[in-house]
Specification:
heterodimer, A: alpha/beta, D-Maltodextrin-Binding Protein, domain 2, five-stranded mixed sheet, 16 helices, 14% strand, B: mainly alpha, MetI-like fold
Chain lengths: 462, 313
């Protein structure tokens, strides 16, 4: 069967500068693996996935559609993160071919301050793009909540594609009950990627419990390489990884925890699951899972450490695997979620990867809506998501996991996917500040109690 | 017809006054010519800054045009947050150490390369090069140098100094000095160029005269060179102080402000709060404080150094 190319790239978590190197890497991946639809309760997501490479051009049409009225000629504009360029460009091209006279001129900005500065300025100046990329939730300056609150995004609640959105993360794209964007897809917030060939050569197996992970670290360290590459200098890596561990220790036990925290019925400090997540980090650090310089390692070092074979595993957003494969195309990667204390408590934490909305000031409402309709076709959105190395919302809904994500299919079929907390944090600084605080665990500046108290403080900030 | 003597007197007085009026008119010309530039400066530079400063008194989040008036709330929040005092301390520490080290280093380099060395032009170019490079790009290169498996630690290992190895950029004790090292590396060359220009302006005859009097090298330096370099010292110290206060690229590239805010400065705090956290009002308030700090210290320093110049000369 034809191999599916996984063309990934990177960034992880919020804002930041962190980076993005684009690459193209191809990996013979298993066919989309099927799993049952997932039902999880909604929680958030953070930031998008950076770049990728060329996405396969979507084949327009797959879903049966009623013949639509031809559109009036129009010149639309679209603004998105540059990481979405590989996925969006072919989609735009195909849409223009299908709608003669309609053009879409895209502008792309890097994640973080470039996008944060440019897009709101255009809106405020009455010069917004007709179609706008937004992040789900409220933890980013360019989230659906931030733009929705400012009145920049049109209500799309009655659009025909609404039911095709990935249900667990749909509420992230709503503002005061109105749907303001169409999601593109999801990706694991953080996942442990590993070198399958190295594991096979050394008779290593995927750990199913946290204790087994610590044993694995010890074994790998004994073999002379770093067990897990960790980019501790990047706050998003720290906070996203701990939020992922909390998927096992908090969300697996209490799906309503965040609602309770928002209601003030609990705190980070008094929740055993959060304490356990941070203790796991301490145990991993003290158990020799990371390199001595992990606390100061930037994203690029983490990636090259894994790509060069200096580490057997890497714990971060799965989409960073694209950068790894760009450096080492022959690497045979696999994925498993960070294991919980028991196999049964292990969860895959999914992050909503952003969506597309329509500016309320657009002069081309019909054409813009038609574009979102076009994007919503299952084959088109799969191409768009594939270009960004994420799982499309339709594939996520149907449990078809492309490429290396196929390793996670059992978690989807067993209803062991949770949506991550971070996009629902009540302010835009929580994730970054938490990541900085967690770095203190590595450097000895913070204890677990300190970090928990910090998180409660950051949570209350406006 | 007989002319009225009063008219004649008036005519004489007019003719006497006209050159003076002409010269007065001529004196206005430069001012008139400056008007467009001054107007552009006011409208394009200062007016936006003043308007931007008003956001310091709002809770604007950067999205939308509506900004709620919050009075002094942002300033109160700034001084309530522990990170502000840390950032303020780091800003002063970096600026102070940079002024001292870059100026002393730059002066020593200038004195060395002022001599007729064959390679002096090459060496001058090499020492000045770091200032000409992109500060952000070279900051990332330094970040690599300071990594645990980077060239610095590898060098120490090869010298048998394993115990000196550190996670430099993630060590709370040393991280700030990695930033300082990069700043010094970048600005010492600039200081050297300024001092070289100052040295070029000192007539050789003065040195010859004191040499004839039997003055030692130290006396020549302290009694002739240093006093005559006073204007260069004023410029250089002021510039390095301003660069030190505004240190941003180097912090972001080398440490990102970490670990746990150990290397945060006011400039990085302004950027982080404004563009990363979307706290535009808070960021504007912080920027106002930074501008006030820089202006106060720069003016005080210039005043002090000018006073010293007069004393030395």
């Amino acid at each position: 069967m034809a191999a599916v190319c996984i063309l990934l790239t990177a960034s992880c978590g919020d804002d930041d500068d962190a980076d993005s190197a684009t690459t193209e890497a191809s990996e013979p991946a298993p066919e989309p693996t099927e799993a049952a639809p997932v039902e999880t309760d909604a929680t958030e997501a953070t930031e998008p996935a950076p770049e990728a490479t060329e996405a396969p051009a979507p084949t327009p049409t797959s879903a049966p559609e009623a013949e639509a009225e031809p559109l009036e000629p129009a010149d639309l504009t679209l603004v998105a993160l540059s990481s979405y360029k590989p996925g969006l460009d072919p989609v735009i091209e195909a849409f223009e071919a299908e709608n003669p006279g309609v053009t879409i001129e895209p502008s792309y900005y890097e994640a973080g301050d470039a996008y944060t500065t440019a897009v709101p300025t255009q809106f405020a100046g009455g010069n917004g793009s007709d179609i706008v990329f937004v992040l789900g939730g409220q933890a980013s300056p360019y989230s659906s909540t931030a733009f929705g609150r400012a009145g920049y995004l049109m209500d799309l609640s009655d659009e025909p594609w609404v039911e095709t959105m990935y249900a667990p993360t749909r509420t992230l794209y709503e503002y005061e009950g109105a749907l303001v964007a169409r999601d593109v897809g999801i990706a694991p917030l953080s996942i442990i990627s590993y070198n399958k060939d190295y594991f096979a050569e050394n008779s290593l197996t995927e750990p199913t419990t946290f204790a087994e992970l610590l044993t694995l670290c010890e074994t790998v360290a004994g073999l002379g390489i770093v067990p897990i590459a960790w980019g501790g200098a990047n706050p998003a890596v720290n906070s996203n990884n701990v939020a992922t561990l909390a998927g096992n220790t908090v969300q697996s036990e209490d799906g309503e925890w965040l609602a309770k925290r928002i209601a003030g019925e609990t705190t980070f400090a008094e929740t055993p699951g959060w304490r356990r997540a941070l203790e796991q980090l301490v145990e991993m650090n003290e158990g020799g899972c990371f390199s001595p310089g992990a606390s100061g390692a930037p994203l690029a070092d983490m990636v090259s450490m894994f790509a060069s074979g200096q580490s057997a595993m890497m714990f971060t957003s799965g989409i960073l695997l694209g950068q790894v494969l760009a450096q080492t195309p022959d690497l045979n990667p696999g994925m498993f979620p960070a294991p919980g204390d028991t196999a049964d408590s292990t969860r895959v934490t999914a992050q909503a990867s952003g969506g597309l909305g329509i500016w309320t000031g657009t002069d081309h409402e019909e054409a813009a809506k038609r574009f979102l309709e076009y994007v919503s076709r299952s084959d088109v959105i799969a191409g768009l998501a594939g270009g960004n190395s994420i799982i499309s919302s339709s594939d996520a809904t149907e449990g078809n996991l492309p490429g290396v994500y196929g390793d996670l299919v059992d978690y989807f079929s067993d209803d062991k996917v949770v949506t991550d907390f971070t996009a629902r944090w009540p302010n835009t600084s929580m994730n970054m500040l938490t990541g900085q605080s967690i770095q203190g665990i590595f450097t000895g500046q913070k204890s677990v109690d300190d970090v928990l108290n910090d998180m409660d403080t950051y949570f209350e900030q406006t | 017809m007989i002319a009225d003597p009063r008219d004649r007197q008036s005519a004489v007085s007019d003719s006497a006054a006209s050159p003076s009026r002409r010269s007065q008119s001529l004196r206005k010309v430069p001012w008139i010519l400056a008007v467009p530039a001054v107007f552009a400066l006011l409208v394009l530079r200062f007016l936006p800054a003043v308007i931007g400063a008003t956001y310091a008194f709002t809770s604007w989040n950067g999205v939308g045009v509506a900004a709620d008036w919050s009075g002094l709330e942002n300033f109160r929040a700034i001084f309530d947050e522990p990170i502000t005092s840390k950032a303020l301390f780091n800003t002063f520490r970096l600026a102070g150490l940079l002024v001292i080290i870059a100026n002393v280093g730059g002066l020593l380099l200038a004195l060395s390369l002022h001599k007729a060395l064959k390679t002096r032009n090459l060496l001058r170019a090499l020492f000045f090069l770091p200032f000409a490079l992109s500060h952000l790009a070279s900051g990332y290169i330094w970040q690599y140098v300071f990594q645990y498996d980077g060239p610095l630690n590898r060098g120490l290992r090869s010298l048998g100094l394993e115990s000196w190895q550190r996670t430099w950029v993630a060590d709370p004790q040393f991280a700030i000095y990695t930033v300082l090292a990069v700043l010094v590396w970048q600005y010492t060359g600039l200081a050297m160029i300024i001092y070289l220009a100052g040295l070029e302006g000192i007539p050789d005859e003065l040195h010859d005269a004191v040499a004839v009097d039997g003055a030692s090298a130290w006396l020549k330096f302290s009694r002739v060179t240093l006093p005559l370099l006073a204007p260069a010292i004023t410029i250089c110290a002021t510039l390095t102080l301003i660069f030190g206060f505004g240190a941003f690229d180097q912090v972001v590239a080398v440490t990102g402000g970490g670990p746990v805010n150990s290397t945060e400065t006011l400039a990085t705090q302004v950027w982080r709060n404004t563009f990363i956290f979307g706290r535009y009002g808070y960021g504007s308030a912080l920027a106002l404080i930074l501008a006030g700090v820089v202006a106060t210290f720069a003016i005080a320093q210039v005043g002090l150094l000018r006073y010293r110049e007069k004393q030395l000369l």
